[in-house]
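Run log, item B.
One chain of 256 residues. Sequence copied directly from the ordering sheet:
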Amino acid sequence: LYRAAFTEYRHRAVRREWPFAYALYAFAADPARPARGTIVTAFIQVPANEHASGAGRVHFSMVDTLTTRAWASGGTITVGEARAIETVLQVPLDSSATPHLYRISVRDERDASVAMAYGGPLSAPAFPDGVLAISDVVPLHPDGASPWRRGDQVLRPMFGGTGGHALDIYYELYHVSPGEQLETTIRIEREGGLLRRARRYEVRFDDVVPEGLAVPTLAQRRTLQHDLGGGEYTLTVSVRSRTTGQAVEKSVPIRI
């Protein structure tokens, strides 16, 4: 029912479309209590549109497909002709990791026929107590100016491909303890094919959770220096606690 409703919304007739780019990231809603719930952030990039008035409305909603509960967030934007506008919408979920459907839409504030929407399934993670867990991994744009704040971090996700041979990423680890020893392996790789060869970059970090950490959440911002050529890759962050033996892993596609 909800899938059909979202599909109808996405494909209903409009005179003019307003394309936009977006990315979704899931983190613990409360770094002090990661098990209490998840917050999903929609980072949205809206370009100028000659058919639009310049004033727009953005909307982000999620529906729990098992309980039919829904969450939504919205706001207004003003888009000029010079560059795209970036905005952030967030919806908090409870601690149950159930299947969800999401929808993101942008429409002209003065003319509802100028609009566009995207949507689909999303499995939002949960971060249960006592289990080492990891948030989504965010590849970061080298220009750090952004409306998205996460604690004392300013996060601007990378849209499109990365340039050069340096890449910053951000993620969080949950349910860690002061003095805990962590071993992190980060890989960027792609499989070989008929017209391309396999490529792989790997780096390892050994960390100790600071003794003064007051919450069970450790924010990690890494700079990766690689020598890979252009193309589509998979970036994987693997973390193992030498103290507890628990391990966790998260992957994200990137383009170089």
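Observations after the first pass:
- The chain has one helix and 17 strands.
- The CA atoms of residues 141 and 158 lie 4 Å apart.
Flagged for discussion on Thursday.
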